[in-house]
């Protein structure tokens, strides 16, 4: 599955630079949550450049090892930080640091989605955005809507409807906390 995800054929439907370019600028800190071998992580690293950082989070050590090898080969290892997590483990060290989160074809694999979206919202700076996409066909529209509801309950707001081939997707933003 990991090799399938980084196959060049995927580039016909998912062009990383076109999908991510509107959100990532040099110097930013990004998270690729459920990065696998880094189909999106390496282009993210190129977009944020040497002054930025991409945290690549996954539960499978093998995926992260392969991602690390690929980053070394492409001269991007200084910008890629692989992070191995256990299901449900907290990533508090990233809280409030992140400008952009990618959650692509991952949420349907996660047991505790309310916790996932709470974790991602906590990582994000005010004004940061999360691009959330799920594979159309594999995930039902009702399941996707349910996941989006969980993201809204975690405090994110809808900020756009990006069109991504063969996917259901939404852009979510972390706004200022309302004054109480
Ligand atoms: C279908 S792949 C998608 C990979 C990548 N986002 C892409 O689009 O190429 C899903 C990845 O999410 C990871 N994953 C599943 N549950 C996870 C969790 N709870 N926390 C972190 N990663 C997880 C899997 O190990 C796998 O590498």
User: Quick one: CATH class?
Assistant: Alpha Beta
Biggest sheet: strand arrangement: 3-2-1-4-5-7-6
Main sheet characteristics: 7 strands, mixed
Radius of gyration: 15 Å
CATH architecture tag: 3-Layer(aba) Sandwich
Structural class: alpha/beta
Quick summary:
With 180 residues, the chain is α/β, with parallel strands linked by helices. The protein has one domain (20-174): Rossmann fold, CATH 3.40.50.150. It has 6 helices and 7 strands; from the N terminus they run ααβαβαββαβαββ.
Can you walk through the features of this model?
The protein is an alpha/beta fold. It has one domain (20-174): Rossmann fold, CATH 3.40.50.150. Helices cover 30% and strands 27% of the residues. It contains six helices and seven strands. The protein has helices at residues 2-5, 16-20, 41-48, 61-73, 113-123, 141-153, and strands spanning 29-33, 53-58, 80-84, 98-104, 124-135, 156-160, 167-174. It has a seven-stranded mixed sheet with strand order 3-2-1-4-5-7-6, with helices on both faces. It is globular and about 45 Å long. The chain binds S-adenosylmethionine.
Chart the SSEs and their pairings.
Layout: H1 2-5, H2 16-20, E1 29-33, H3 41-48, E2 53-58, H4 61-73, E3 80-84, E4 98-104, H5 113-123, E5 124-135, H6 141-153, E6 156-160, E7 167-174
Parallel strand pairs: 1-2, 1-4, 2-3, 4-5
Antiparallel strand pairs: 5-7, 6-7
Helix pairs in contact: 5-6
The protein binds S-adenosylmethionine.
